[in-house]
Amino acid sequence: MTSSSGIPHHIAIVMDGNGRWAAKRFMPRLAGHRQGMESLRRCIRACVDRGVAVLTVFAFSSENWNRPADEVSGLMELLATALAKEVPKLQQDGVQVHFVGERSGLSDKVRAGLAQAEAATASNGRLILNVCFNYGGRWDMAQAAAKLVAQGKPITEGELQGAMALAHVPDPDLIIRTGGEQRLSNFLLWQAAYAELFFSDKLWPEFDEAELDRAMAEFSRRERRFGQTSAQVAAGDQKVA
To answer: Under a CB-based contact definition with an 8 Å cutoff, are residues 227 and 204 in contact?
Structure first.
């Protein structure tokens, strides 16, 4: 789905490079994650200003538990602190927050913070912010299938789509990955089927409004055919939004 001005309705971002940004400066990895929070703040503001309706970010994957214990605990503490600090600002800016991922492995403190942030921003409508935390694309497909089995529903493409963790928003139009890597790393595997991909060499703490605009400009030049021919698209016969 794209607005008449060429602005993607839904942007998703793999925020990669925090640790490398810190290492280049002989700083601990957690310092990179803190700086990455600044980039996320800038990106949220920029998406609001540019009329993007949905922003989904990959904050912590289900594989990140394998990182050093001090980094994981630091990330959890950073999340708890950020929730307390950022939610009032997000509320003021009209941002509706959703945390997407498996919560059973999180502490009671973190789970309570996620629920409180979602409740506090539930009526906002200027931007939907999905924070994928303890999330994996394969986990998402597995939990959707298990949900349908438990409900006695058939496992069809349409039923699975409705059972996905991001069923409350349309699939992303544009997926950005920073840090120079060119892979999805288990992010939105189902939802990425027709997304345009943009790979940025900038490490996430360096990602700014200019780089977001560069990604969106590249997106506006892409022809999105959804399996159809260029002639069909030109004739306005597109069936997928």
So the answer is: no
The model's pTM is 0.89
**Is 237 one of the annotated active-site residues of the chain?**
no
Q: What tens digit of pLDDT does each residue of 17-62 get?
A: 999 999 999 998 889 989 999 999 999 999 999 999 999 999 877 6
| Overall average pLDDT of the 219-236 stretch | 73
The vertex-232 CA angle with 231 and 234, nearest 5°, equals 65
* Catalytic member of 49, 64, 208, 237: 64
The answer to the question of residue 152 being in a domain is: yes
- State whether residue 101 is helix, strand or coil: coil
Q: Which of 16, 140, 171, 173 is catalytic?
A: 16
Residue 129 covered by a domain: yes
Domains in the chain, number: 1
Dihedral, CA of residue 124, residue 129, residue 131 and residue 135, to nearest 10: 100
Give me the domain span that covers residue 56. Answer: 10-234
Percentage, residues of the chain above pLDDT 70: 91
How far is it, in rounded angstroms, from Cα 218 to Cα 223?
A: 11
**Residue 239 domain-assigned?**
no
Handedness of CA 231, 234, 238, 241 (dihedral sign): positive
Is 240 inside any structural domain? no
Q: Residue 173: which CATH number?
A: 3.40.1180.10
C-alpha–C-alpha distance, residues 188 and 116, integer Å: 25
For the segment 164-184, the average pLDDT, to the nearest whole number, is: 97
Which H or E run contains 61? strand 54-61
**pLDDT the model gives residue 108:** 86
Please say if 64 is a catalytic residue: yes
pLDDT score recorded for residue 4: 47
